[in-house]
Amino acid sequence: MEVRFRMFGAVLGGTGVTGVFWLTKHLVDHDAPAFAAGVFGASAAAFAGLVLRADRRRGL
After folding, report:
1. Quick one: angle between helices 2-29 and 33-58, nearest 10?
2. What residue intervals traverse the membrane (predicted)?
3. What single-letter DSSP state applies at residue 32?
């Protein structure tokens, strides 16, 4: 069961990262590069925070 949750998490994380890249590209294409940089930076910080928190809970 744990393997299924890990696979689901990997797919969900990959989808989220892909969505952020798509949104950033869309914003840059529509002349909003500053907002795109903010969205990308905030999303990268959020994903990094999730990864670091998951590692801390496992004791790594």
Report:
1. 160
2. 7-28, 34-52
3. -
Residue 53, domain extent: 30-60
- The percent helix, strand, coil of the chain (3-state, each to 5) is 90, 0, 10
Q: Is residue 36 part of a domain?
A: yes
pLDDT at 1: 79
Q: Report pLDDT digits (tens) over 2-59.
A: 899 989 989 998 999 999 999 999 999 999 999 999 999 999 999 889 888 876 666 5
What is the model's pTM?
A: 0.73
Give domain status of residue 40, yes or no: yes
* Domains in the chain, number: 1
Domain membership flag for residue 34: yes
CB proximity list for 23: less than 8 A, separation 6 or greater: 36, 39
Q: Are 7 and 1 in contact (CB under 8 A)?
A: no
